[in-house]
């Protein structure tokens, strides 16, 4: 049996936290586990749309990594990764150099707002909900809209690969506006790079196209799909085909790229290729899980879209990668797991006063089964999942579903 090995995990969200806790659970003192993350917070990202509408606070949906990890024998370093050298097995950060025997890349995406003129809350005019800070800014923008109503454009740009939160926002904002008797003052457009509503980067899910189209029709939400965004201004979103969509508020998922510090190990957009064990094909002691993983769609869409990796998928990847690392250290054949394309995707889509359960097994067609079930209890299930997962991470129970 091998002696203690240094296992370095990059990222402190679903994939990174699950991998670190599971490796430590499986190997104990045989593994020196370190997590490097630029943020000190684990955030339950599926609840960020609720933060925008005021139904959640940041404190309720986040946990400090510096308090979760050290009590479980895992070192935590708050720093930004600048590069990886597979030859010397070292990671360079802003403040230090870290060696490793095994490296797990769970860095999530780089939100490439710079690819579209005027996109993003920092240097542009649009908002998004993929980070806690961005969701806070989106909440402030939503509150300004309530005080001074006008048109809303929300959805996803080209090369985005996470569509669910913006469908949720469309339904949630519609519900909140109706509850305030303001809906007639706020025209809503759902703009997307998807070839049709309900595609979601996975070639649809059963009757998802008809379901979304019917729900949008009932709520008077206009869908504009299969479009590329050319630029964003304070009062308009401009499309590549010359169309201009007026708006007082825009919330758009930006293009996704791999995080710069690890992108050189990846494909042209910086996502990391992996085999069935979640190992890099050229560097077998480097693993990747979650959004950082390269996953191609079944067939290209007219406007480029990415395949989403949900929190559920990411956790399953992380658990499998941790088991494979443990097996290698114990000189066993890695048990592997399902091919990435065999993973099941589960989405609990909030719709304001109800919600929809969506399941695709596997993620890309042809599929063994699909479920699309709209019921109010699904919204309660989503809230229960939030509480359960935060408890699971806080208590270090990485091996639970």
Textual characterization of the structure:
This protein is of the alpha/beta class and 401 residues long. It folds into 2 domains: 5-48 and 60-110 and 257-341, FAD/NAD(P)-binding domain (3-Layer(bba) Sandwich), CATH 3.50.50.60; 113-255, FAD/NAD(P)-binding domain. 26% of the residues lie in helices and 24% in strands. It has helices spanning 14-27, 48-52, 65-68, 132-147, 164-179, 208-219, 311-329, 376-395; strands spanning 5-10, 31-37, 41-43, 62-64, 75-78, 81-85, 90-93, 97-99, 102-105, 109-111, 152-156, 188-191, 221-224, 229-233, 236-239, 244-246, 249-253, 256-258, 286-288, 345-350, 355-361, 369-375. The strands form 7 sheets. Strands 5-2-1-9-19 form a 5-stranded parallel sheet, with helices on one face. The protein has a 4-stranded parallel sheet with strand order 13-12-11-17. A hairpin with a 4-residue loop joins strand 15 (236-239) and strand 16. The longest helix is centred in the C-terminal third of the chain and has 20 residues, at 376-395. The chain is globular and about 65 Å long. The two termini are 29 Å apart. The model has no long low-confidence stretch (mean pLDDT 95).
